[in-house]
């Protein structure tokens, strides 16, 4: 397994990132489409490759993790692309709602903090240490003293277990209203932090 910053690959990997993204995030994006292929195409334009790190196994993208400086965006959504794939109505809603969700600024973080975002592993490479290797690489290769992971679903036990194993600690829990919890099938979003020094 080799790990690279995505913009340093000799090819544009946005299409593969879109497929992995759709496989991992379709449950959250079901209002816009339940078809993973449509979600993959709708989001492939948005990946800012200089913010993503990828694991490559046998010349395939096995997984990805974004790491930003909490100011730059890892995803930049274009309304016209979303409308093209989701249709005018749902694409317009996606542009408004998801832009607010994915491009929201961070508040009250320590200086020199990196944000770990959008952890995704291709189904054929799951349970092979892909995500943990990428996150370890990010922590070793990026200059931040602190790392945050925001809003992990409390039902995502595999991800939470991984973050604890890597030394992250829970910093807050955002409990959902009963209506939201029933709709999303989770109780809360959990945030984590790791201090490197």
If you had to describe this structure to a student in words, what would you say it looks like?
The protein has 197 residues and is of the alpha+beta class. It has one domain: Aminopeptidase. A seven-stranded mixed β-sheet has the order 1-2-3-4-5-7-6.
Secondary structure: elements and pairs:
Layout lengths: L1 E4 L8 H12 L10 H8 L8 E6 L2 E9 L10 H8 L1 H15 L10 E9 L8 H12 L4 E8 L3 H9 L3 E7 L2 H7 L3 E8 L2
Parallel strand pairs: 4-5
Antiparallel strand pairs: 1-2, 2-3, 3-4, 5-7, 6-7
Helix pairs in contact: 1-2, 2-3, 3-4
**Known CATH architecture:** 3-Layer(aba) Sandwich
Biggest sheet character = 7 strands, mixed
What is the rounded distance between the termini?
27 Å
Helical content band: 25-40%
Number of strands: 7
Concise account of the structure shown:
This protein is of the alpha+beta class.
Name the features.
single chain; 197 residues; alpha+beta; Aminopeptidase; seven-stranded mixed β-sheet; 7 helices; 7 strands; 36% helix; 26% strand
């Amino acid at each position: 397994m080799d790990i690279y910053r995505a913009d340093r690959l000799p090819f544009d990997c946005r299409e593969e990132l879109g497929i992995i993204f759709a496989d991992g995030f379709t449950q959250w994006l079901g209002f816009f489409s339940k078809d993973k292929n449509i979600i993959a195409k709708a989001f492939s334009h948005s990946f800012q490759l200089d913010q993503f790190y990828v694991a490559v196994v046998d010349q395939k993208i096995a997984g990805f993790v974004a790491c930003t400086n909490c100011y730059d965006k890892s995803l930049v959504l274009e309304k016209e692309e979303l409308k093209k794939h989701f249709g005018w109505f749902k694409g317009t809603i996606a542009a408004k709602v998801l832009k607010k969700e994915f491009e929201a600024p961070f508040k009250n973080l320590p200086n020199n903090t990196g944000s770990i975002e959008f952890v995704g592993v291709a189904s054929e490479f799951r349970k092979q240490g892909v995500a943990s290797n990428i996150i370890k690489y990010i922590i070793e290769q990026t200059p931040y003293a602190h790392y945050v992971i925001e809003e992990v679903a409390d039902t995502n036990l595999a991800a939470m277990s991984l973050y604890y194993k890597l030394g992250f600690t829970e910093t807050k829990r955002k409990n959902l209203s009963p209506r939201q919890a029933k709709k999303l099938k989770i109780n809360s979003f959990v945030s984590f932090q790791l201090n490197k020094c």
